[in-house]
Amino acid sequence: MELPAVGGSSSRKPSKRVWPVLAAFVFAALYFSIDLPLLSARGSRSHVRIPLHGADTLAKCRSLSVKPAPPPGFSDRTHSDRNEPGTPLVLIRNATIWTGLDNGEDVVHGDILLENGLIKNVGDVNAFKLNMVNVTEINAEGAWVTPGIVDVHSHIAVASSPSLNGANDANSVKGLTLPWLRAVDALNTHDDSYAHSIAGGVTTSLILPGSGDAIGGQAFVIKLRPTSERSTSSLLVDPPYGLNGTAVDYDIPPRWRHMKYACGENPSGAYSVTRMDTVWSYREAYEHARQIKDKQDEYCSKAFADEWEGLGEFPEDLQWEALVDVLRGKVKVQTHCYEAVDFEAFVRLSNEFQFPVAAFHHAHEAYLVPDVLKRAYEHPPAIAMFAAFSRYKREAYRHSEFAPRILNDHGIKVIMKSDHPAIQSRWLLHEAQQAHYYGLPANVSLASVTTNGAELLGLDHRLGYVKEGYDADLVIWDSHPLALGATPVQVFIDGIPQLQASFTKKRDDRQAAPITPSFEKEAEAAVKFVGLPPLEGTPITSGGILFQNISSMWRRDESGVHCVFRTRDIDDEGVVFVEDGEIVCAGTMGTCTSFLGDKGLTVINLEGGSITPALVSAGTSLGLQEIASEASTVDGTVFDPLQGSIPAVLGNGSIIYAVDGLMFGTRDALNAYRSGVSTAITSPISNGLLGGVGTYFSLGAKHKLEDGAVLNDVTAVHVTVAHQDGGPSVSTQIAALRRLLLGPYTGERGASFEAIVKGELPLVVNVKNADIMASLVKLKQEVEAVSGTPIKMTLVGAGEAHLVAAELAAANVGVIVTPPRPFPFTWEGRRILQGPPVTEQSLVTTLFTHGVTVGIGHQGVNEYAPLTGWAARNLRWDAAWAHIDSHGLISMEDALNMASTHVEKLLGVTRKASDSDTVATKGGELLSFEGKVVAVVSPRRNVVDLFE
Ligand SMILES: *[C@@H]1O[C@H](CO)[C@@H](O)[C@H](O)[C@H]1NC(C)=O
Ligand SMILES: *[C@@H]1O[C@H](CO)[C@@H](O)[C@H](O)[C@H]1NC(C)=O
Ligand SMILES: *[C@@H]1O[C@H](CO)[C@@H](O)[C@H](O)[C@H]1NC(C)=O
Ligand SMILES: *[C@@H]1O[C@H](CO)[C@@H](O)[C@H](O)[C@H]1NC(C)=O
Ligand SMILES: *[C@@H]1O[C@H](CO)[C@@H](O)[C@H](O)[C@H]1NC(C)=O
Question: pTM score, two decimals?
Answer without folding.
Answer: 0.93
